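re: that chain from earlier
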Amino acid sequence: MSALSVKNVNKRFGGLKALDNVNLEIEASTVHAIIGPNGAGKSTLL
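^ sequence. v structure.
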């Protein structure tokens, strides 16, 4: 069973595409990290 399911998430800030069709499945009792450069959309996703 998924603890978190994200499907087809899109987000724009004006003309800047921060998230483009993001899909993510996180299972219970697992550890994950979301990493990337500044402005990649990590905080927006969370």
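Residues 1-30 form one domain.
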